[in-house]
From TrEMBL:
<feature type="binding site">
    <location>
        <position position="86"/>
    </location>
    <ligand>
        <name>ATP</name>
    </ligand>
</feature>
<dbReference type="GO" id="GO:0017038">
    <property type="term" value="P:protein import"/>
</dbReference>
<dbReference type="GO" id="GO:0008564">
    <property type="term" value="F:protein-exporting ATPase activity"/>
</dbReference>
<dbReference type="Pfam" id="PF07516">
    <property type="entry name" value="SecA_SW"/>
</dbReference>
<dbReference type="GO" id="GO:0031522">
    <property type="term" value="C:cell envelope Sec protein transport complex"/>
</dbReference>
<keyword id="KW-0479">Metal-binding</keyword>
<dbReference type="InterPro" id="IPR014018">
    <property type="entry name" value="SecA_motor_DEAD"/>
</dbReference>
<keyword id="KW-0472">Membrane</keyword>
<keyword id="KW-0653">Protein transport</keyword>
<dbReference type="GO" id="GO:0005886">
    <property type="term" value="C:plasma membrane"/>
</dbReference>
<protein>
    <recommendedName>
        <fullName>Protein translocase subunit SecA</fullName>
        <ecNumber>7.4.2.8</ecNumber>
    </recommendedName>
</protein>
<dbReference type="InterPro" id="IPR036266">
    <property type="entry name" value="SecA_Wing/Scaffold_sf"/>
</dbReference>
<keyword id="KW-0547">Nucleotide-binding</keyword>
<dbReference type="Pfam" id="PF21090">
    <property type="entry name" value="P-loop_SecA"/>
</dbReference>
<dbReference type="Pfam" id="PF02810">
    <property type="entry name" value="SEC-C"/>
</dbReference>
<dbReference type="InterPro" id="IPR004027">
    <property type="entry name" value="SEC_C_motif"/>
</dbReference>
<comment type="subunit">
    <text>Monomer and homodimer. Part of the essential Sec protein translocation apparatus which comprises SecA, SecYEG and auxiliary proteins SecDF. Other proteins may also be involved.</text>
</comment>
Amino acid sequence: MLGLIKKVFGSKNDRFLKQLRPILSTINALEAGLRDKPDDYFPARIAELKELVANGTSLDSLLPETFAMVREAGLRVFNMRHYDVQLIGGCVLHKGMISEMKTGEGKTLVATLPVVLNALTCKGVHVVTVNDYLAKRDAQWMARLYGFLGLTTGVIVHGLTDEERKEAYNADITYGTNNEFGFDYLRDNMKFYKEQLVQRPHNYAIVDEVDSILIDEARTPLIISGASEDSTTLYSHIDNIIPSLKKDVHFTLDEKAKSVGLTDEGVARCESMLNLENLYDAQNITHQHHILQALKAHHIFRRDVDYIVKDGQVVIVDEFTGRLMPGRRFSDGLHQALEAKEGVKVEAENQTLASITFQNYFRMYEKLAGMTGTADTEAVEFGQIYGLEVISIPTNRPMVRLDYPDSIYRTRPEKFNAIVQEIADLHKKGQPVLVGTISIENSELISGMLKKANIPHNVLNAKHHEEEAQIVAEAGQKGHVTIATNMAGRGTDIVLGEGVRELGGLHILGTERHESRRIDNQLRGRAGRQGDPGSSRFFLSLEDDLMRLFGSDRISSLMQKLGMEEGEPIVNNMVSKAIENAQKRVEGHNFEIRKTLLDYDNVMNQQREVIYSLRRSTMMEQDLEPLVQEFLDDIIDELYGEWQTLKTPDDEMAATMIARLDETFNIARVMTMPPVPEAEAVREAVLARLNGLKNEAPEMYTDILRYFLLEELDRCWKEHLLNMDHLRDGIGLRGYGQRDPKQEYKREGFSLFQSMLLRMRENIFKALTRLRIQRAEEQAEEARQREEERLREELRHKEAQKNLSYSAAQAPQQAESKKQPARRDEPKIGRNDPCPCGSGKKYKKCCGVGA
């Protein structure tokens, strides 16, 4: 029935594309009129359109003319004319949707259309890419087109100064990676002066490879952290006991959930080896956490798959792109556990200073759009999390790539032998092959086997990413064999060399299914671009992680029924369907992980928005007195709210209230207590003290307020983030008490946040009411007095040293003189006379001892 309805009325996607036909006709009608215009007409007209937008003209009404101008600019600058399907893609992006376009359809050129249109607002347009290489490449390439139209282009990559970043963000169009945009936002909210801010408000962003950034990387929040003061010795100490713990005896392992747990026997062994009475005692919670993380490091996270060791450091490998992620660290002590496992220096565990998820960062944009070749499988998540609709754009030329069914083997050795044989056959024929792997480990294993078979090839993985552009450029040449991790699946077009089309085009050979169908589709999408011939096939085994964890039992029994021989593959649609179902289960599991992360971060996001909004207004406001008075009223209301509920307060309660008032406002300096003063009297006293500060330093008063407001806000927010981390670490245990951990986190997080806000306000007044303004002249006078006192002390010390040296030098002579009779012409020294050495003592008690 659903198929019949689609045939009659068309799908929702088809109906939307149909609505764009009139716009497409208008753009095409304008093309001829622009062909005769001189080059200088275009920047002048763009400037006029900017003025129209500033005066209230809608972007939608200017879309046909702007798109027609960009198309003409592309023809003049690159000799590349936007196809009609690319114009459709541009319309979809402008409307804040996801444009799903097949590989090779020119997504980079498509983006120029809505980018220029939205740049007319003068509020900035961000084009987000997956890595620095693509950001620089696209920015340099497209800057020529934007420059032709009179627009400026900036690029944000790793290693720029704040001045360079600010200049790039102030350009009409800014290219950069998702990480750089996100971290700049967090860093801006740690700055102290508004002149230091680099980002403008978030206006419009186009996310290239949107599924990679908003889906795959959404499981990893952006975190800026600083080293905590905790010792790192415990990580190495715990690591030493891990080899003695046996699987299924001392601990259990769940590879699907990537979790470990200690058995009763394992708990007892750990207690014995660590000399602990009770591992689950509150004071031993750190040991328990470290043991579990060390077990994960040894039994779940694999070297050259999840991370590599490079230059004495553990470097994370991105599971989706295969790229190294220097500077990024696993959280909760896992990275330190890996460092202890690998025998490299264990760095101090970090404390969170600022964090945000990609979901919440990108939802800040007024309008968000995205491009990818593979979004349809995640359309539900895009709709639920981001409110983004996926529109599939038809290809400019028909897709002719042949996608063969999977070849499935019983064991990994059988599979890899078959892969090498397939590569050898294709190489002999001259057809180029791109071999896709999901880990560095597998790419190097196949490379070793090809070397033994004397088959020349290139390897592209995180260890050799410097040669990426050259390797990718050559991958479509006759006879070339390229082994790549998922790095080659993003933002790279492989152009076929001479004579390759006749051989069948580029062949994609997948060595393993990824957890996500999209990653497999991206690999397939490297072949068959723009109507080129191509083919693809995946080689699998029942020992692959995906098959072993999620689908091998059913498939294994099916293969046994079919009576398979060793080395013989099965090519069966039922098996391929079972594999796809296994992938769907993993995708559903990962979606739940991302959704849970977002649910927890939504609590933090509400708090983050309050703090960052308060911080931004504190930086920007010229007059901070109203804010300070508001804080004062809040504290007094809080203190006296409790006090006024007491009907008959006793002396002890009054003493407590007085102590709190004095601690917070230093009130005893200006008021006589007891009794407890009226709230209004306290308020006036504090304001009088602040007015005194203002009169002492009127030109600096606002800066003084700003300094203490921001200083306390940052300090209390950092402590709050640490408290929220601790709360989240243990909140899952509430589920055992039949309570919803998310609701508990929300309730207790709100309570912690309220306490933090009150503590921040109190600390501000503790500082302000104890502050003493010292003028430069007073400071100089104090410094002069201190210097004089220092010189006097130094002089006294020198005199004492001089007398001591004199006494030591004279002592032998004086001792000798005591042995000889006194000469008649020398005056005799009496026993009670002052000692001639200058000590001030009597002669008999100094040099004349015994005289």
